[in-house]
């Protein structure tokens, strides 16, 4: 009994200590605005394990088109939403890093779409955008709707094949880390299936979940805060856009030593 | 799980290893069910293909056959079938109780949290807009919140169990073949139960029944038949090799850089490892674990009676109550993480105190059993008002 009581006491003390926490998180968010490099604490989670050959060619040709295919977490609300969401930030980051290359990011993004639903409109979006790269954000909606994990994997495979036959490389973005809804959305199976499909199909995976989890653990951002304000959401999207840009460039470079082949 | 001894064939044969490993499985399930729990890195799902669910389902099948099998021999089919169904009903009630707690948690999050970053994720609360349908679907076991899939599976398995048990006692091999046949048909025809609002059950009963029936089969003499196999050095060697293989694959999940060492034909062959339909790789992993465990822990190992293992054993002996408590505690633990503190130290404290509460509750249930067994005893001549059942 005494032991449990002391646990309780220790726990209460911890709770009190933690009260200082949100303030810290806000400060670091502010600092981020001045030093965007701080979102790079998650840099080592960027894993360019497969080459993006079409992207490499497009960079050499000084003209890089990217299509972002996604659902609600590729969007931000508000008047400046489309400017501040990560697809636009990706275009910005790549334009800065690839001097002399004309980078254009178009989007096919709509909330509440499962992977299979996105695949349906993909051919049309591809024919309009003619991208060298499809950045595909998916998984959350499938998990929320408890879609058969097998069907989810098959939809991913189909999407990859469609994109590749249209001459585009693919990068996956997995679900966001959303601590409040963690006990309500079982992301596990879907995140794992994405990782497996990515491995099998040799598609680089942008581990958004892992990155956001690391930010949460390190106190870079406070994902628990309840707010209607967009500051944190904008910072997060800005960071995701930059890190995604790093991944794209690193994976494109991978194909340089052996330029032959490709899909 | 223990029934009152009927004809008093004293349960000397009860294998404490079952209680021990079911108790441990309950702890692991609790740890795994708290989202992002830092402590859950110790649980077995991180080091191979199978996890605590397999252990829980197998041992539940084993003990169900052990308890109801004897009842069926003594009291006949009808009585024991009625008792199995009563058990299923109890589990149903427990499930509905947990669902109520879940609703309370969800409703709290729904009205207290808002953040433009997570607009999409908050869509998961849309079902709150028509609670009538949702609650009805939950009562029909079609709407199942995250981490509340095991009890519905357990209910379905028990509802089927009486005829299976009957068959197991007539012809154990036939029952096992029947079960494996059902499993195969499930894979061929994609059978599963429907879920609401969409999708299918996360634990497919057509698939998971195999492990349950296999557990029951082992309890009714199958284990002795297998003994020669299990103890052969070749099987133990194979089990070790397979566990090592699964471990190395699991490492590539956490250190993707190691992924390049997995030949493509291997990854093509094994992925995806299907939990919903109880992938063969998972069954093999569980069986390997079981073989090694049986080899390492003999049934009359004196340490099984020591104080060290006692907390897990007592939890394993009251699995339903402790399982439900574990689900509740995992909700509560997640609530603590989101509302108060999400530091690693909090994770450790929540995990340890959760297990402590589970043990305490198991002790309490044991104590209740004892006083109930003692019967009413000599009653005081008059019952004092206000003391009805409250005099602890």
List the helices and strands and how they pair.
The complex is a heterodimer of chains A (263) and B (392).
Chain A: H1 2-18, H2 21-34, H3 53-60, E1 63-70, H4 81-84, H5 86-97, E2 102-109, H6 115-129, E3 133-137, H7 140-144, H8 149-165, E4 169-173, H9 188-201, E5 205-206, H10 208-218, H11 231-254
Parallel strand pairs in A: 1-2, 1-3, 3-4, 4-5
Chain B: H1 16-33, H2 52-112, H3 119-122, H4 131-139, H5 150-170, H6 172-189, H7 205-230, H8 233-254, H9 264-270, H10 280-296, H11 310-316, H12 319-339, H13 344-373
Offer a quick outline of the entry.
The complex is a heterodimer of chains A (263) and B (392). Chain A is α/β, with parallel strands linked by helices and 263 residues long.
Could you explain how this protein is built, in words?
The complex is a heterodimer of chains A (263) and B (392). Chain A has one domain (46-253): Rossmann fold (3-Layer(aba) Sandwich). Chain A has helices spanning 2-18, 21-34, 53-60, 81-84, 86-97, 115-129, 140-144, 149-165, 188-201, 208-218, 231-254; strands at 63-70, 102-109, 133-137, 169-173, 205-206. Chain A contains eleven helices and five strands, in the order αααβααβαβααβαβαα. With 263 residues, chain A is α/β, with parallel strands linked by helices. Chain A has a five-stranded parallel sheet, sandwiched between helices. In chain A, strand 4 (169-173), helix 9 and strand 5 (205-206) form a beta-alpha-beta unit. With 392 residues, chain B is an all-alpha fold. Chain B has 13 helices and no strands. Chain B has helices at residues 16-33, 52-112, 119-122, 131-139, 150-170, 172-189, 205-230, 233-254, 264-270, 280-296, 310-316, 319-339, 344-373. In chain B, helix 1 runs parallel beside helix 12 (319-339) and helix 12 runs antiparallel to helix 13 (344-373). Chain B is globular, with a radius of gyration of 22 Å. Chain B starts with 15 loop residues before the first helix and ends in a 19-residue tail after the last helix. Classes of the chains: A alpha/beta (263), B mainly alpha (392). The interface between A and B is large, with 62 and 58 residues.
């Amino acid at each position: 009994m005494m032991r449990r009581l002391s646990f309780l006491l220790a726990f209460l003390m911890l709770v009190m200590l933690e009260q200082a926490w949100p303030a810290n998180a806000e400060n670091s968010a502010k600092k981020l605005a001045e030093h965007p490099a701080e979102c790079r604490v998650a840099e080592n989670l960027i894993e360019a394990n497969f080459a993006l050959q079409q992207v490499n060619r497009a960079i050499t040709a000084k003209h890089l088109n990217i299509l972002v295919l996604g659902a609600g977490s590729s969007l931000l609300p508000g008047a400046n939403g489309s400017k501040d969401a990560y697809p636009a930030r990706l275009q910005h980051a790549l334009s800065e890093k690839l001097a002399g290359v004309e980078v254009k990011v178009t989007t096919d993004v709509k909330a509440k779409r499962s992977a299979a639903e996105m695949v349906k409109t993909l051919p049309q979006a591809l024919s309009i955008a003619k991208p060298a790269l499809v950045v595909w954000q998916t998984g959350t909606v499938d998990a929320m709707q408890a879609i058969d994990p097998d069907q989810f994997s098959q939809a991913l495979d189909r999407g990859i094949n469609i994109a590749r036959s249209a001459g585009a490389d693919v990068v996956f973005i997995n679900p966001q880390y959303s601590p409040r809804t963690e006990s309500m959305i079982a992301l596990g199976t879907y995140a794992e299936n994405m990782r497996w499909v990515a491995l099998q199909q040799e598609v680089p995976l942008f581990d958004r979940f892992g990155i956001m989890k690391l930010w949460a653990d390190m106190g870079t951002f406070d994902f628990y805060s309840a707010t209607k304000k967009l500051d944190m959401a904008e910072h997060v999207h800005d960071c995701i856009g930059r890190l995604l840009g790093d991944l794209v460039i690193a994976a494109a470079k991978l194909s340089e030593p052996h330029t032959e082949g490709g899909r | 799980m223990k029934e009152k001894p009927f004809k008093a064939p004293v349960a000397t044969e009860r294998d404490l290893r079952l209680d021990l490993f079911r108790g441990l499985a309950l702890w692991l399930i609790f740890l795994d069910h708290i989202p992002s729990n830092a402590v859950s890195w110790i649980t077995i799902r991180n080091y191979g293909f199978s996890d605590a669910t397999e252990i829980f389902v197998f041992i539940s099948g084993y003990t169900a056959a052990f308890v109801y099998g004897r009842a069926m021999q003594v009291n006949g089919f009808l009585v024991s079938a009625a008792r199995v169904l009563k058990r299923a009903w109890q589990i149903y009630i427990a499930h509905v109780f947990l669902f109520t707690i879940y609703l309370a948690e969800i409703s709290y999050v729904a009205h207290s949290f808002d953040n433009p970053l997570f607009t999409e994720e908050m869509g998961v609360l849309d079902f709150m807009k028509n609670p009538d349908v949702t609650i009805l679907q939950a009562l029909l076991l079609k709407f199942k919140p995250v981490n509340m899939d095991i009890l519905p599976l357990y209910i379905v398995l028990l509802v089927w169990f009486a005829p299976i048990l009957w068959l197991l006692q007539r012809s154990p091999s036939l029952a096992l073949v029947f079960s494996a046949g059902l499993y195969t048909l499930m894979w061929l025809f994609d059978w599963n139960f429907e879920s609401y609002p969409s999708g299918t059950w996360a634990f497919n009963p057509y698939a998971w029944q195999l492990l349950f029936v296999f557990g029951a089969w082992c309890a009714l003499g199958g284990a002795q038949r297998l003994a020669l196999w299990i103890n052969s050095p070749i099987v133990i060697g194979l089990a070790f090799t397979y566990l090592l293989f699964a471990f190395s694959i699991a490492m590539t999940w956490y250190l993707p850089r190691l992924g390049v060492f997995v030949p493509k034909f291997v990854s093509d062959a094994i992925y995806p490892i299907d939990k919903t339909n109880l992938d063969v790789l998972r069954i093999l992993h569980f069986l390997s674990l079981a073989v090694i465990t049986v080899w390492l822990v003999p049934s009359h190992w004196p340490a099984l009676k020591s104080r060290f293992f006692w907390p897990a054993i007592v939890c394993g002996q009251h699995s339903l109550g402790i399982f439900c408590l574990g689900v509740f505690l995992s909700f509560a633990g997640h609530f603590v993480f989101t509302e108060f503190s999400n530091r690693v130290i909090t994770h450790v404290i929540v995990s340890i105190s959760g297990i402590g509460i589970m043990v305490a509750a198991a002790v309490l249930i044991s104590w209740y059993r004892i006083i109930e067994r003692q019967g009413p005893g000599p009653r005081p001549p008059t019952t004092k008002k206000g003391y009805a059942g409250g005099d602890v």
